[in-house]
Design brief:
The protein is α/β, with parallel strands linked by helices. The chain has one domain: 3-Layer(aba) Sandwich (Rossmann fold), CATH 3.40.50. It has seven helices and eight strands; from the N terminus they run H-E-E-H-E-H-E-E-E-H-E-H-E-H-H. The strands form two sheets. The chain has a six-stranded mixed beta sheet, with helices on both faces. Helix 2 packs across helix 3. It is globular, with a radius of gyration of 17 Å.
Length: 203
């Protein structure tokens, strides 16, 4: 779990916002989690990296994998913290050089943990898992900081992959309500949205 101080800091720097936002997936959302802001704040960045490294420390892994572009700074620092190698998965195969989709020295049978910052539908992580498997890697887990609770974890698990999540968005929202930072009405509207989205993704 992300500790309460980190949640407050993320809210304070605007990494957790409320309003109307269109996500990469095209879905409209009443909240937005932008953890790219956190890498600009060393204290927040370090503490989040340490939290994830501690959560992953018991896994027998060789390589940490990032996904172009948002998760690369997270994967890089988590790999450094765990003293593991790093690879990253491109959005598209590059048209020159070795034309690889996975950059770095990924070898047959290496045990890999895929890192992403936030999970919504799980499609980015699933794509990365398939790319790594396609180059001989053995993906043993995926890990995210915050689960938006819109079916992403379930989709990843259907690929046979365990997922580590440090926080669910409802936990974050409940904490912010309890601290008087957002209203009960806003919380309830977000819960209604999540229930509706879960119904949409399950059909």
């Amino acid at each position: 779990m992300l500790d309460e101080g980190l949640i407050l800091d993320l809210y304070g720097i605007g990494a957790i916002r409320f309003g109307r936002f269109r996500l990469t997936s095209g879905i409209e959302s009443p909240f937005y989690i932008d953890l790219r802001l956190a890498i600009t704040y060393p204290s927040v960045y370090k503490r989040m990296v340490k939290s994830m490294a501690e959560a992953l420390s018991g896994l027998n892994t060789d390589i940490i994998a990032g996904i172009e572009t948002a998760s690369i700074p997270w994967a890089s620092m988590i790999a450094y913290e765990l003293n593991k190698g790093l690879v990253y998965v491109r959005k598209e195969t590059k048209e020159h050089g070795t034309a690889k989709l996975v950059e770095g020295d990924l070898r047959q049978g290496m045990r890999v943990v895929v890192i992403d910052d936030v999970v919504t539908t799980g499609s980015s992580i699933i794509r990365a898992i398939k790319a790594i498997r396609g180059q001989g890697g053995d993906v043993i887990a995926a890990a995210v900081f915050i689960d938006r609770e819109q079916g992403g974890l379930e989709a990843i698990r259907r690929e046979g992959i365990n997922v580590v999540s440090l926080a669910r968005v409802t936990e974050v929202i409940d904490f912010l309500v309890n601290r008087g930072l957002i209203s009960d009405d806003l919380r309830n509207s977000i819960i209604d949205y999540l229930v509706k989205m879960r119904g949409t993704t399950s059909t």
